[in-house]
Amino acid sequence: MSELKEISSLDLAALVASRVCHDIISPVGAITNGLEVLDEEGSEDMREFAMDLIRKSARQASAKLQFARLAFGAAGSAGAEIDIGDAHVVASGFMENEKSDLDWQVDRQLMPKDFVKLLLNLILIANQCVPRGGKILVAMTGDAKQPAFTVTASGINSKIPLGMKETLSGEEPERVDAHSVQSIYTLLLARECGMRLAMDKNDENVKISASLI
Fold first, then answer.
1. Is residue 3 one of the residues assigned to a domain?
2. Sorting pLDDT into bands at 50, 70 and 90, what band is 41?
3. Are 209 and 148 in contact (CB under 8 A)?
4. Is 173 among the domain residues?
5. In-domain check, residue 115
6. Residue 37: predicted pLDDT
7. How far apart are CA 91 and CA 108, in angstroms?
8. Are the CB atoms for 207 and 200 separated by under 8 Å?
9. Could you read off the pLDDT of 57-72 as tens digits, one per residue?
10. How do residues 118-162 score in pLDDT, each as one tens digit?
11. Contact at 8 Å (CB) between 158 and 204?
């Protein structure tokens, strides 16, 4: 495979927006369905079911949007620092709606925003490696200015999705689309942070690491 070609800022923005919208469509659609049930059904049981669906879906949509805002958004001016405790909060909220449990082992501290965004995107990458659920362990060594991240996904039938390892290492994916953009965006973030990504599978664990070059 060839080296990843440069992607225009417009194309990258469009692909990331498409990816975020894909994640939000499901809970927003469920809210719409719940409202339709409230409009049409006279049964008290069905109304309570609809309200439960709306509440659950609204919480899920909010958690996904808060995560996306920090993981993909500007999150302050250039050079800004973010409390990594905030990243823990949004990551926990996001993972409540996923099949895997989050084991966060990073101390609260201020950290340059691109490092925080990279860590959140590594969690998204790890989550794709355990489609049947499991545990995602998030760890860091070093300090806020010179960190090294390790995100380990453990679970039954854990796997590295096709082409993901190669893309994270800097190779051109077979297709540049809303599916592969997650790996591409994570790689670009790592480069911006001056970090190198590595991904390996051992037994039922997939480990993704980011270290300074």
1. no
2. low
3. yes
4. yes
5. yes
6. 87
7. 14
8. yes
9. 999 999 999 999 999 9
10. 999 999 999 999 999 999 999 999 999 999 999 999 999 999 999
11. yes
Please give the Cα distance from 13 to 68 (Å, whole number): 13
Q: Is the pLDDT score of 1 beyond 70?
A: no
Strands 147-154 and 110-112: what pairing?
A: unpaired
Got the DSSP string for the chain?
A: -PBPPP--HHHHHHHHHHHHHHHHHHHHHHHHHHHHHHHH---HHHHHHHHHHHHHHHHHHHHHHHHHHHHHS--SSTT-EEEHHHHHHHHHHHHTTSSSEEEEE----EEEHHHHHHHHHHHHHHHHT-TT--EEEEEEEE-SSSEEEEEEEE-TT----TTHHHHHTTBPPS--STTTHHHHHHHHHHHHTTEEEEEEEETTEEEEEEEE-
Phi/psi region, residue 161 (left: phi>0; alpha: psi -120 to 50; beta: rest), is: beta
Contacts for 92 with CB less than 8 Å, ≥ 6 apart: 102, 104
Give the chain's domain count: 1
Residue 213: CB atoms within 10 Å: 8
CATH number at residue 150: 3.30.565.10
Q: Which domain holds residue 194?
A: 9-212
Residue 133: both structure tokens together = 């659920």
| Residue 1 forms part of a structural domain | no
Alpha carbon distance 6, 112 (integer Å): 25
